Amino acid sequence: MKFDNLYDLFLGEIQDLYDAEHQIVEALPKMHEAATSSELQDAFQQHLKQSKMHIKRLENVFEILGESAEREPCEAMQGLIAEGDEIIEENEPSSVLDAALIAAAQRVEHYEIAGYGTVRTYAQILDYNDAVDILQQTLDEEGETNKLLTGLAMRVNPQAV
Ligand code: FE
Ligand code: FE
After folding, report:
1. Could you tell me the CATH number of the domain that includes residue 65?
2. How close is the Cα of 111 to the center of ligand 2, in Å?
3. Are 141 and 25 in contact (CB under 8 A)?
4. What is the pTM of this model?
5. CA 47 to ligand 2 center in whole angstroms
6. DSSP state, residue 76
7. What is the per-residue pLDDT for 1?
């Protein structure tokens, strides 16, 4: 991808996140199904709802920019999700699988935290203040989800020993 200015880069990053969120919405039901812990199942279920909202919020941002909502294939998310799929395929349901699912999910959240933090800051510099608020809401939810997963890991990991 070629960028001429920060606006181009901003738009490209939004398109990347828009694709990443669609991939996540497809992956979360599989992770939910693979999880043993009911708390972890609930966490995936809840984050599926949130991720659908993240897609809507990105569509609002496209609207604010006067651009059409387009997906730029996010290869990083394809890789993270492929690793998660592999874990699910190769393991029977157990606490160890739950621990591995949490590890995979936290990688996804960290990718999103990096992406949304970046676009939130670009929106500030470019003076799209409504977009700043929208992106900050999603950034906060990704951060909360990551913390929730850390809390779950503290209970699940010892069971997997
Ligand atoms: Fe998200
Ligand atoms: Fe997320």
Report:
1. 1.20.1260.10
2. 9
3. no
4. 0.96
5. 7
6. H
7. 79
